[in-house]
Write a structure and sequence with these properties.
18% strand, six-stranded mixed beta sheet, six-stranded parallel beta sheet, Rossmann fold, 434 Repressor (Amino-terminal Domain), 331 residues, alpha/beta
Length: 331
């Protein structure tokens, strides 16, 4: 596959010069631009996109990188992003990484050499340097849901407060053996949730009964099921469980019913990343609800402004929303 680097080498110019020429951004000497266009033609470098790019000066494509579409809030979030993007007359390209850093790296490198106007990203946190390079390479980046680096703009949620408030809610429900089934701590929302949970446990003088994952695992249903069994073997008299997301809560709910727990009388379950699915189950899951529509709207607004203004993409803005408690049948 021909890349910008190949075009730059044949035209004997820098990659940044090729980018400016193809995107009609910044001054490029006419003779230099002609040489670049000849190199593009000779190497057959994305000719159809090239024609559109040169004529319009834009492609109106936004890449959205997410961990998973399967039974997760990301599927709903992507739909909201796509609907909002149409209002701006943009189309989106969806990339699913399964939260695999290697897959993410490969996808990012393809985006770097593509004709994307911008990137919305739910990152694993393992490719920060590459992401910053893309942001400097004429493709603005906005992190969504996970603020993995403060050096790039982001739209996310206050996960610390989410878990902190969740513990206090369960404690007010009469629970004092409150466990947390979390995710991998290298991913910032999981880390922040644990800190909020730990802080609340300390303030209420109750035991920390948390279990974290030490590897990337997108099979949250099985993970919730297995971690529940691990919890009840490790700790006695657990009367409430916080989970990192709804799918994990579903696994806990299934395991609890298999173990003949009465929900919510003997065990209360609260998801810390709730979305519409929790309301569709036979036993509806209580949750700290994610403001997905707000995240979709604000992240697109932020990214489109960066694209249209052709501003310095190193300018950083962080937007943080709060979750809201939705009491259903598991508490």
């Amino acid at each position: 596959m021909t890349t910008l680097k190949d075009v730059a080498k044949l035209a004997n110019v820098d990659i940044s010069t090729v980018s400016r020429a193809l995107n009609n951004k910044g001054y490029v000497h006419p003779q230099t631009k002609k040489r670049i266009m000849n190199a593009v033609k000779e190497l057959s470098y994305r000719p159809n996109l090239l024609v559109n790019g040169v004529k319009k000066g834009k492609r109106r494509n936004i890449c959205v990188i997410i961990p998973s579409l399967f039974l997760s809030m990301f599927g709903e979030l992507v739909q909201l992003i796509e609907e909002k993007a149409r209002d701006y007359e943009y189309e989106i390209v969806i990339i699913n990484t399964n939260d695999n850093p290697d897959v993410e790296e490969l996808s990012l490198k393809k985006i770097r050499d593509s004709y994307a106007d911008g990137l919305l990203l739910v990152s694993t946190g393992q490719n920060k340097r590459l992401i910053r390079d893309i942001n400097l390479f004429d493709i603005p980046v906005v992190q969504i849901v996970r603020n993995q680096t403060d050096l790039l703009s982001s739209v996310d949620v206050n996960y610390f407060n989410c878990a902190h408030e969740g513990v206090y809610f369960l404690h007010k429900c009469g629970c004092d053996r409150i466990a947390l089934i979390n995710g991998i701590m290298e991913i910032r929302p999981f880390y922040d949730r644990y800190k909020g949970y730990s802080k609340a446990c300390s303030e209420l003088d109750i035991e920390d009964l948390s279990i974290n994952n030490n590897y990337h695992n997108m099979n949250f249903f099985n993970n919730g099921y297995d971690k529940f069994i691990e919890l009840i073997k490790k700790y006695e008299n657990i009367d409430a469980i916080l989970t990192a997301n709804d799918l994990q809560a579903m696994g806990v709910l299934r395991a609890a019913k298999d173990c003949e727990y009465e929900i919510p009388d003997e065990l209360k379950i609260l998801s810390l990343t709730g979305y519409s699915m929790g309301d569709l189950l036979e036993t509806r899951i209580s949750s700290m609800e994610m403001p997905l529509e707000d995240i979709a709207n604000k992240s697109l607004e932020l990214l489109i402004n960066k694209i249209k203004c052709k501003s310095d993409y190193t300018q950083v803005e962080h937007i943080t929303f709060n979750t809201s408690l939705n009491i259903r049948e598991t508490t």
